[in-house]
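Title: Comparing notes on inverse folding

I've been comparing how different people in this forum approach sequence design from structure. To keep things fair, I'm posting one structure and asking everyone to reply with a full sequence. Here's the target:
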């Protein structure tokens, strides 16, 4: 049995990429493991957020976790700001971090570049807070997309640094990358990752998109002109991306897909991809609608925060003693 922790920021609408790359795996792991899944709202405020929107997206994200199959009897679902140990340990991990290593993070560089001369210091201190999220639970495995590799490396470095300086307090966590479908690309620029913050909404399938919109977006996805359904990421990034999506939602191999579409054109293929995506997302959307208004959602989150806190407090006590932060 492993301890598993992961988090998603409530800072935009979730995409098909988030589902296939992360969310879908979360519920697969809840049997036989001790899982903590977190709505990381304190990470979201490292860039400006509109308060009412942040509140709404926090609830929405929690409902999506549940709609995607997370069972609160098996896994612990909670909101980061309701477990104060995250920022408390986050501060301590910040004191152990070097400005140089934080400035090297590509996510920091990308986000900082968009903020002109007013770069929030929280953007720089993001990785030590993420390390705290993970280390509080003595986590073994962190299922995330491959864009989080650097953050996971710094998490491990910080944990090792702490253990070396103050004694063995933290378990050193490993990253768990998904297999197929981890990297869903933009439908319009298939060499770029599908992003929840893409300005072009036709480039992204959102989890809560209406079926007819999903169909439209997939039909209009960028491809090439040779009309052959063949996997070749370099030469045919658009078709390869659609094949990845199709493979991920149907469990078919690329070879099987190539064989099945050998004498069919892109039109037929796109229609089938769209249908397959809709048949995966529609039941999730129905459960989401049931959950979002239900009082049960609040009960689940309240209990989740209690459970998470009980676990986090044990580690945090050890940290305080290890570093002498007590009377
Ligand atoms: N940094 C992650 C992202 O941008 C979100 C995150 C915050 C996270 N804390 C975490 C992911 C802890 C896994 C574990 O996607």
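Reply #1:
Here's my take.
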């Amino acid at each position: 049995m492993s301890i598993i922790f992961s988090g998603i920021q409530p800072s935009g609408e979730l995409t098909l990429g988030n589902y296939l790359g992360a969310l879908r795996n979360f519920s697969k792991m809840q049997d036989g493991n001790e899982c903590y899944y977190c709505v990381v709202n304190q990470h979201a405020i490292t860039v400006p957020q509109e308060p009412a929107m942040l509140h709404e997206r926090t609830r929405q994200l929690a409902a999506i976790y549940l709609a995607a199959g997370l069972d609160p009897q098996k896994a612990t679902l909670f909101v980061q700001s309701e477990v104060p140990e995250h920022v408390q340990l986050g501060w301590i991990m910040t004191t152990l971090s070097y400005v140089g290593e934080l400035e090297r993070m590509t996510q920091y560089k990308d986000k900082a570049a968009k903020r002109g001369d007013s770069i929030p210091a929280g953007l720089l201190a993001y990785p030590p807070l993420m390390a705290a999220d993970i280390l509080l639970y003595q986590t073994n495995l962190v299922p995330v997309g491959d864009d989080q590799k650097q953050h996971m490396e710094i998490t491990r470095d910080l944990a090792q640094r702490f253990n070396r300086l103050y004694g063995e307090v933290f378990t050193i966590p490993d990253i768990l990358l998904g297999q197929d479908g981890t990297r869903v690309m933009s439908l319009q620029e298939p060499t770029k990752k599908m992003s929840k913050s893409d300005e072009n909404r036709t480039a992204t399938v959102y989890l809560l998109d209406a079926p007819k919109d999903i169909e439209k977006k997939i039909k209009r996805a960028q491809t090439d002109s040779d009309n052959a359904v063949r996997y070749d990421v370099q030469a045919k990034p658009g078709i390869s991306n659609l094949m990845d999506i199709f493979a991920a939602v149907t469990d078919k191999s690329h070879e099987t897909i190539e064989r099945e579409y050998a004498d069919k054109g892109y039109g037929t293929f796109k229609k089938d991809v769209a249908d397959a995506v809709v048949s995966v997302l529609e039941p999730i959307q129905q459960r989401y609608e049931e959950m979002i208004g239900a009082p049960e959602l609040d009960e689940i989150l309240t209990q989740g925060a209690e459970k998470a806190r009980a676990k986090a407090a044990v580690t945090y006590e050890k940290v305080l003693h290890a570093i002498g932060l007590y009377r």
